[in-house]
Amino acid sequence: MPIKVLDRDTIAQIAAGEVVERPASVVKELVENALDAGATQIRVEVKGGGVSLLRVTDNGGGIPAAEVPLAFERHATSKISGTADLENIASLGFRGEALPSIAAVAGVEVLTRSDNDAAGTFIQMEGGAVTRQASQARARGTTVTVRNLFRRVPARLKFLKSTPTENGHIANCVSQYALACPEVAFELAVEGKTTLRTSGRGRLIDAVIDVYGVATAGKMLAVKPPEGEFAAGPDAAGVTVTGMVGAPELGRSGRGHLSFFVNRRWVNSRLLTYAVEEAYRGLIMVGRHPVAVLNIALPPADVDVNIHPAKSEVKFRAESEVFRAVQRAVRQALVAQMPVPQVGETAAAYQAAPPRARASWMLPQPDRADISVPEAPPTLATSLPVLRVVGQVMNAYIVAEGPDGLYLIDQHAAHERIRYDKLRQQRAESRPQIQGLLEPGTLEVTPQQTQILGDCRESLAAYGFALEPFGERTYLVRAVPALLAGEARGDREERILASLACHGAVRSGQALSDAEMRALVRDLEQTANPHTCPHGRPTVIHLSAGQLEREFGRS
Ligand code: ADP
Ligand code: MG
Fold first, then answer.
1. Is 45's C-beta closer than 6 angstroms to any atom of ligand 1?
2. Per-residue pLDDT for 354 more than 80?
3. Which end of the chain is more exposed for a tag (fewer CB within 10 A), N or C?
């Protein structure tokens, strides 16, 4: 094919493809525009996962009537005027690409009024061209309505996920900006139901309550509180880190609860993620991730926001200074507001990898120098022999004798394994034993979780959970699987099972009677995989007769 310049429509669609990946990208651009316009109230409405309808209404400065069509021209912006400004970007938008990109892949209507106009302006765009323009009354501010997203781009439509998933991305985006801007009152209505509403009173803790619920918010620690001992201004590199971080016990299984804002711009950043995780090192269980809501403020000239098509990544001029500032601020917050003396112990207790001595017991020991190898697989036979319970030590371990030596059983891990196998079996037979609750429990979810929960309520029902919507973001838990003693938490498939197995399992620290210990050991013998708990930690440690003899120097 000979080289030729593509037609306008194709060019517009290619450009749009970079900015508008999914409905949540549209929401992000429109919310950023509203914030740039100085809005103090922003309402987002969504229908059909954002594909049928997306509407963002703000009370910001509005677009002057004469400039409304211009706002849809590619690279038309009121936020910068030349290359010099690119070095010093203080607004969220600056490329003048969002409105034309959205108009290239959807039907768009804008109703806006600025302070200097007596009446508002209405404009309708289809296929990137103006189809209607008129005067219309409106209070100061802007409403942008986007319909039939990607109707003209079937390839994109095909790659979208389910409606609840897309709604979840949108809810997450609005939640993030609600956390970034506690002084702005946000409202999100999904399919006609309000799922998030923030007060806009300006306190971060209020926004955290609105997004994550009171239980999580109650365990958040302030980073650089305004009246604290480390209320100093920016550090040497001009970096100020503020926000809140979760107490280590709030550890989450994924990184979805890490929110970073750079000069209030919501960004993804491996550097910042790493800095926060470093600050939690030794305090949080291995494999768990903290909750954090942090704003990194620094001179705009020290951060390049022009490196990513959706502006969701940035580059810091002084990366290591930023890294250190974040790590230090978070660590200080954790140390200042937590009981410190146990740090060393906690670190050891939280390590998921078995400590040396334990590992050595699980290994064949041809040579004592070998004992430091931590990850050699346990050599226990695939099933447990019949064991005689001798007793309990530290209210945590059962001591038992087998045909070949001594066995130590972690009572919690063992019980987890037993419950996990039972749950799996019931799940396979699809008849969970259900325990109705006399008084329903309540479950508070984030706006994003609301969407996901809506999607998986049926499969949760198959596990024996009866959930009933109650208010905007609360569910009543009417029934739980019978094996679950009064606690409700869940994820998907295996993780649901593992979590169910853990909750309600015998705890370490619990004294057990002889009969209880015998029952536990009998049940463990019956499981298909008795040597590890569902999380992969060992349930049993074996010290063979031969090893004992060697340890005591008898052989
Ligand atoms: P950018 O935000 O990069 O300038 P956009 O395409 O998002 O580009 O918007 C183009 C222009 O339209 C903006 O520079 C701004 O002047 C105007 N605009 C868009 N949305 C709003 C809004 N909600 N309130 C006021 N002005 C807006
Ligand atoms: Mg913009």
1. no
2. no
3. N
